[in-house]
Amino acid sequence: MLAEFTRTILRLEDGEVAQLTPLGLELYDAAGDPVQRTPTLLSGTEHVADKHSFRHFMLKEIHELPETVALWAAPHLPESEPGAAPHAGSLVALPLDESVYEGAERIEILARSTRRHAAQVGASLLEQLAGIPTSVFYASEFRYAPLPLSTNRLTLVVTQSGETADTPGALAMEQDRRGAVANPAYAPQLLWITNWPESSLGRLVHQILNTGAGIELGVAATKTFLGHLLALYGLALAFAKHHGGGATGHVPEQLCQLAAGLRALPEQLRVLVDDHDLRSEQLAHLFADMQDGICLGRGINYPIAPEGALKLKEISYIHAEGYSAGEMKHGPIALLDARVPVVSIAVPGTVLDKVLSNAQEAKARDAQLIRVALECADAEVFGTLLPVPVVDESLSPLLKVIPMQLLSSHIAAHRSLGVDQPRNLAKSVTLE
User: Fold this and answer.
1) Residue 351 Ramachandran class (φ > 0 left, ψ -120 to 50 alpha, else beta)
2) Three-class SS of residue 308?
3) Cβ neighbours of residue 328 under 8 Å, at least 6 residues apart?
4) Higher pLDDT, 70 or 103
5) Are the C-beta atoms of residues 30 and 16 closer than 8 Å to each other?
6) Rounded to an integer, what distance in angstroms lies between the CA atom of residue 144 and that of residue 134?
7) 320 touches 312 (CB < 8 A)
8) What is the pLDDT of residues 115-149, one digit of tens each?
């Protein structure tokens, strides 16, 4: 990483050329004319790349999740004065212009891979809490099949590095075609959620929400995934505050409880990570020979199923797929037998009975069942338990993903695989 050698960088714009000489660096534009530009400092370089006592950086970064949440919550979720009534102004504080909220009647989210799974959770929250229609698109596909132009639409980009080629390309295209329309209602409204504001995408977008997750050396995203989730929770709260707070400025009790739940998350995560680090290490040998797996989820936890499956693919080299549990009988059930474990995310809430019914269907096909659920949630249905604390259903994705991250990490370590640097993968994909 650059941070190991310097904190000072000089960025090149498209078409520019830099020439290194014994006297220093000379910068020229595409026409060959000299360019003067002041170097900038990298942020976040105070963190040292050290595994400490952990076997892998990925494991260390999972253990950093409680601190990640605490550092994000402190500036963004201010607590009300004792005895004061919940008020919209004290619910959430994000460094965004009011125009972001006022002009958005629809939201389109561009994301890829792990960030797309976070975006799907965010879309559910934006629709349920703020009542804003929200759609999630593959950034790699949006550039070639954009939506028809419409007024008052916010384009939200969710990235980790900000350097992956297809995302800036899709965003530049959206800016160009919206900017070509004279009607100001079509003007591009752009927002970027990232862990690296200094990257190339920062030149295109000025409304930026920094996750503040810090340096992540493991190629498979863990704490940056949680950082993106937190930013999306904060954004959903902010939109709900602006769109649903009413003339009095007071907010529904549900939103206040959600904000309080986010503030309480660090301690819950600390206990959960410590517990499941040990549980997952003990379970890893049972699944070390697994070749295929299925992950099931429903409702707001559906995106955690493909995210858990992605981690098994990325880190453990296991062919795994994530499905909505309600779709299992429409094809995937044909794959089930004693050699295909099924991970089921069972959460108390609106769809628990349906999830348990889906699990019974898998059990009837001799599949080994792994539940990510409460300790007491119909234990007789499942085989292996990965217990999680009791939280509101809307907060559950923030906890449910942790056992799946740790299990993938320990399976990979048990199989002597490159946990931090899986084969064929890179932190930033610079070619489409």
Assistant:
1) alpha
2) helix
3) 294, 296, 358, 361, 362
4) 70
5) yes
6) 20
7) yes
8) 999 999 999 999 999 999 999 999 888 888 888 88
pLDDT digits (tens, 9 = 90+) for 214-265: 888 888 899 999 999 999 999 999 999 888 654 445 578 888 889 999 999 9
| Cα–Cα dist 300/101, whole Å | 23
pLDDT score, position 429: 63
Q: Do domains 57-263 and 266-414 have the same CATH topology?
A: yes
Class at the top of the CATH hierarchy for domain 266-414: alpha beta
Question: Residue 166 corresponds to which amino acid?
Answer: D
The answer, yes or no, to whether residue 72 has pLDDT greater than 80, is yes
Would you tell me how many other CB atoms lie within 10 Å of the CB of residue 271?
A: 11
Spatial strand order in the sheet of 319-324: 319-324, 292-297, 342-345, 369-373, 384-387
Task: Domain 57-263: give its CATH architecture.
Answer: 3-Layer(aba) Sandwich (3.40)
How far lies 167's CA from each of 58, 112, 208, in Å?
25, 8, 15
Instruction: Kindly list the domain boundaries of the chain, sorted by start residue.
Output: 57-263, 266-414
Q: What percent of the chain has pLDDT over 90?
A: 36
